Request: fold
Amino acid sequence: GSLAQVASQGSWVFTLDAVNLGTTAATARLSFADNSGNPLVLPLTFPQSTCSMAVETASSIDRTLSPNAQVILQSTGPLKSPALIGAGQLLANKPVSGFGIFSNPALKWNAVVPLETRNASKYVLAFDNTGSLVTGVAIANLSSSSAGVTAIIRDDTGAQIGTGTISLSAQGHTSF
Reply:
């Protein structure tokens, strides 16, 4: 599965909640990459552990999850540090699902992003940019070659109002 957006440090807190939905233990590896596809090293804490305040700095972590077990990790850093932005990929030998939560406590803002496990030829994203609402989009390329993503934007009647191509490097990420 993939998380098309990861944001940590500065005013951002990233939380990942992953659950083993299987009936046997699952081995899972979570890896992070920056916008260019390079390893993204994050400060990580594990609120469920007895040493929940201990920080592990890594671009990937391995965990074994018992059946129906959950693992939670958080990443944040100093407010005055630049935000660390990228994407995440979860590889597991059993059905592991979950979601990421992005929080900005200063703005009292939260967003939940599902761990995406589909590999469809196209996706539909409903949006509403009326009034004070704004939709954010993040795209991650998990392949080892560059890719182009075609975006077609339609209004509420189905009429096309825009189009474009977004280029992503191998393992690359962008958000807008």
